[in-house]
Amino acid sequence: MTGIINWFKTIFILEITGEIALKLVPSKYKEFIAFVMKLILVTAIVIPLLNLKNADISGITDEIKNGFSTYSKENISQTVYDTADKKTAQKAVQEDVAGIVSDYDLEIVSVRCSFTSDMTAVDMINVYVKTGGGDIAGLKADIADRYKISVEQVDIREAGSNG
User: Fold this and answer.
1) Phi, psi of 25 (to 5 degrees)
2) Contacts of 61 (CB under 8 A, 6+ apart)
């Protein structure tokens, strides 16, 4: 995306420079200066277009892909791995974990998660639930299985307790 912005900046600067040059030179040189500036401007426009295969357009395509992604509980883990948008992935994991917690008749207080540096997997999930029974060990196992992580990477605590 920055490449496109820089391209427009270059064209804008060249256009302004050409106009200033036309105002500063004597009238007998204006036609020549205008011709040279048009050649430079056309070159500045065409060269990046000819070199599109090497252009950095991956940022644009990633943004478009993330904009059209849909998140459902059935494909949540694949969605997390396919997105580069950390906030969207965190929200998807939080909603999914909240659904799993409700299956265990526990009330969720908050869910936090972290990802590997390359966003290819969930690294850690922290879940805080209201005090009051429930099968915490089974819940840990289900969440670990769902995200293909070890049980040690799932931390479930009762809100208000230290352990």
Assistant:
1) -90, 155
2) none
